[in-house]
Amino acid sequence: MIAEIIAIGSELTSGQKLDTNSQWLSLQLADLGIPVHFHTTVADDLDANIAVLQAATQRADLVLLTGGLGPTLDDLTRQALAGMAGVDLVLDKASLSFIENFFAGRGRDMPERNRIQAMFPAGSEPLPNPVGTAPGIWMEVPGGVSGKVCRVAAFPGVPSEMHRMFTEQVRPRLPGGARIIRRARINCFGVGESRAEGLLGDLTARGRDPEIGITAHEATITMRIIAHGSTEQECREKISTADRAVRERLGHYVFGVEDEELEHVLIRALRDRRETLSTAESGSGGRIAHCLTGVDDFEDAYLGGLVVPTDRAREAMLGPLPANVAEEVSEPMAHWMATACRERFGTDYALAVTQYPFMEDGQSMRDAPSAFLALATQSETIVRPISLAGNPAILRSRVAKSAMDLLRLHLRKLTPSS
Amino acid sequence: MIAEIIAIGSELTSGQKLDTNSQWLSLQLADLGIPVHFHTTVADDLDANIAVLQAATQRADLVLLTGGLGPTLDDLTRQALAGMAGVDLVLDKASLSFIENFFAGRGRDMPERNRIQAMFPAGSEPLPNPVGTAPGIWMEVPGGVSGKVCRVAAFPGVPSEMHRMFTEQVRPRLPGGARIIRRARINCFGVGESRAEGLLGDLTARGRDPEIGITAHEATITMRIIAHGSTEQECREKISTADRAVRERLGHYVFGVEDEELEHVLIRALRDRRETLSTAESGSGGRIAHCLTGVDDFEDAYLGGLVVPTDRAREAMLGPLPANVAEEVSEPMAHWMATACRERFGTDYALAVTQYPFMEDGQSMRDAPSAFLALATQSETIVRPISLAGNPAILRSRVAKSAMDLLRLHLRKLTPSS
After folding, report:
1. Residue A346 and residue B316: Cβ atoms within 8 Å?
2. Which residues are in the MoaB/Mog domain (chains A, B) (predicted)?
């Protein structure tokens, strides 16, 4: 079975809008093992639409269309499908009532022009739209690569409507579409993408079920698990087996799941222990504070922070520099910043980031020297160098995450049961 | 003249990669007034490629292709163009030397498989690629809407290579392509998109030259000026006239041009005046500090800041709360935060943002009450309410910009010449 995806709209061919629907549908079909050979995007022109549909229904066995189902004059998908199949448009009473009720529910009469949305090519089947006024269309026409039949589904161009209608109504009609797909994500920090791949070994091999892929976003490494099964239960079990295997191999690098970032995990751990944190940032310019204050109910755990990128600010907020702190970018500076910050805020922990080292003109990030991170606790202050080599666009984010990870790992040591 | 854009690659039809080249090329052609009626994306399959090219060269007068010009076996654009035109591939010696030199410049021999990149359909013309090993291809074949000629240009899929080759080599060959296009951007803050449109009036009318469009990004409103002309000088004059007209109508809302944001303008103004700033943020969680520390050489102007989202942090860093400050979200709180922050850091100015008001469960951002901003100067402390109604996703950014804008406007009053 070969598929083609058609996106309809002059706003797409003119470049005013970027088509992302075709990619989304391609990924859905890839999940089912259906290869997509063509994407076609066509302007709002009836003859061009008919010609494109005729070509598609000959060279593909499945054609998915998006767009052109609205009530206005430039919405031509219904007419194009009828023209391609050589049939008339006929009124579907159930769809008409649905649309009238949709407007009635908003206290309005249905505008006359919306009536066209209840018209369907003779022999086709409406695909109800639970969230909008435009029903989709399902039809089977002579054609396809074998010359027998081509199946056609038309969706509205609004992504949320299209996603839901594909998943609920069209996917189950496709070969393999009755099978269930479930996804899960496991997030890691402190390990690179290729090292993670090495540790996972055969788990990421192509064609395995469940499939495990690795992606990176601002130094957070995410394992994406995709499980196929005939029941929800089967998928859940596959995911849980894969989850155990990933955690076994990646150990303490794993910090969370789904949308969790380090700041969520850290705030939760601190709240559970009824402990508090403050921060003193030079080079990272408040990035840690910004992350932590974005978490719901952070106030019991994160009391506040300093952005102290200058000597004057450090001395104003943390007190006079001790005699042993000479260099702006140094271990003693990180040590003092964290210790003094913890004392000033009266928190259980403090994290500090020194200024970033001065870069020579033309020096690449590859040769970049290190800044220093520090974690002050009741009993000690730990200092770690952090290399600034790597993509400058994600540098602040990576440094902030590295500092938070220092505390996360420290807390894990103290609570080995977690 | 009607155009079609073809993107080649199984990574596109499978959905693994999103095609953005077609949109970019459509926008370039729109600038020239050439309508695009079709985008086609096709997998790496020779027969499918030839069929797509045959259809395109019949229904369009100009066909732009991207992708499939690499050295590997799945790169088939050269072969497809030759197949479509019914001609052989022939070696272009100049292209071969260029590719050999490209590798020699990197101290390597040209791999044998790169030789294919110097092969071109007989009768076509190479389009040199100044930044990669894949030259493009220009050819004219029988076809087009009128049945006379269709012009075809093939580019590598790497966006930076494609952009440069289109602009330098193909654009000048197109009708209107010899005309020059220059763009400029003027950035405003403190005015909404529709109010800006109202103030600009006829300046934004469609079809005007230069064209002026309005876009919004995180509460910064940008006027985009596009001037067409036959010389650089003509474009410059048109832009400068439009720039004057925009500034006349939008007055003090205008703060910068091109990529300038409020933080750049503020740091520059403070450096020019040899004055300094500090910040105390509750609700905005360090966003102002994060913006200001992202500007080059900010250190002389922005000394540092506090992220004080809790009473404990405010008292630890700013001293005991005065008797008149009872409410966390109040004018007196903002007043005290800014005044005390300015004193603690010893700066000329301080900006403060109070906590955001507590939202009831289910209360929409539309009914949101206000937080307070304050600016402390040597002679006074100014407090302003800021409504939290609006898109929550950009709330922190808007609040941070509003605080910076308070100081920008204050500085302008003191230096009316600027």
Report:
1. yes
2. 4-177
